[in-house]
Write a structure and sequence with these properties.
It is built from 15 helices and 6 strands. It has 297 residues and is α/β, with parallel strands linked by helices. It has a 6-stranded mixed sheet with strand order 3-2-1-4-5-6, sandwiched between helices. The radius of gyration is 23 Å and the shape is elongated.
Length: 297
């Protein structure tokens, strides 16, 4: 452990401490950026950005540097402090990372995923949060509609969603809103970039019971995960944990109904909804209208 670490604590941010440590460790080792690049397989320009604080790096590069310098997990721990300092709100950090994604896989245990929700569904869902003012709800709905551009825009992410049957057995109070939501899900099953599967109750117990999971594949090839459950949330970027979650997701996908059967499941639900064949489409926006709006986002 570096002797002067405690002297820096309290007088600088964790990000600055990390950058200073990286520069100090390399100077003490007598290695050039070129040599360090060879040892870690990371570009020396990128390593220089880490030492100057222009980049925060990733768990992988800090693990590689810890290995080179023999510092255990010291640099990785500093990176965690810097990450939490810069992004105390993990959901905000997730939203920043999701814009860098090329594909996403999602399992929803409790509600229709936000990227597939109609405005009517959003309004009823937001109305259950008593702490939100009407202005807050309007703002949150606008943000959620805007996010739908990521799977409905001109260059959509590839999106696979597994919906637990419990999601589909919990309709909105307004039958027309629920009918429109089911129609939108059925419409989404026809889109080439979207795959929807239903995980039936008959699949039994599984590794994500009670949790919802989103896996993002970033442009860099890195996979990260975001979990929600029981009013708690966690952004997971550690490779080992992400790999375990990805494998768990694959097991759910194998247990879920195939896409064709899932679409038929949704059609049967729509047919069973009261007055589904007679009710006009409500005023809530569908995915297509959200797509038009999203171009302003």
């Amino acid at each position: 452990m570096p002797a002067h670490r405690s002297a820096m604590v309290g007088c600088a941010s964790a990000k600055r401490i990390l950058a200073a440590e990286l520069a100090r460790l390399r100077a003490a080792s007598g290695q050039s950026l070129g040599t360090l690049s060879d040892l870690t397989t990371y570009d020396r320009a990128y390593l220089h950005k880490l030492e100057t604080g222009k980049s925060s790096g990733s768990p992988e590069v800090l693990a590689a540097l810890d290995a080179v310098y023999g510092t255990g997990q010291h640099l990785q721990e500093l990176w965690e402090l810097a990450k939490n300092e810069a992004h105390p709100d993990k959901y905000q950090r997730f939203m920043e990372r999701e814009r860098q994604a090329t594909s996403r896989k999602q399992y929803s245990f409790s509600t229709i995923p936000g990227l597939l929700q109609t405005e009517g569904y959003m309004q009823e869902l937001m109305g259950t949060h008593l702490s939100h003012s009407e202005e807050d709800r309007a703002r949150l709905i606008a943000v959620r509609l805007g996010r739908q551009a990521m799977v409905l825009g001109n260059h959509p992410q590839h999106y696979r969603a597994i919906l637990d049957e419990s999601v589909l057995r919990r309709p909105t109070k307004d039958d027309q809103v629920w009918q429109e939501q089911l129609r939108v899900l059925i419409e989404a099953t026809k889109m080439p970039s979207i795959r929807i599967q239903v995980l039936p109750f008959s699949a039994g117990l599984h590794g994500l019971l009670g949790d919802s999971l989103t896996l993002l594949r970033l442009r860099t090839g890195k996979l990260i995960a975001y979990m929600e459950g029981n009013r708690a949330m966690d952004l997971v970027e550690e490779p080992d944990r992400v790999e375990q979650l990805d494998l768990t997701y694959d097991l759910l996908r194998d247990a879920a109904l195939p896409p064709g059967e899932s679409a038929q499941f949704l059609r049967h639900l729509l047919e069973a909804t009261p007055s589904a064949s007679d009710s006009p489409h409500p005023g809530g926006r569908s995915l297509q209208l959200a797509k038009v709006q999203s171009e302003q986002w």
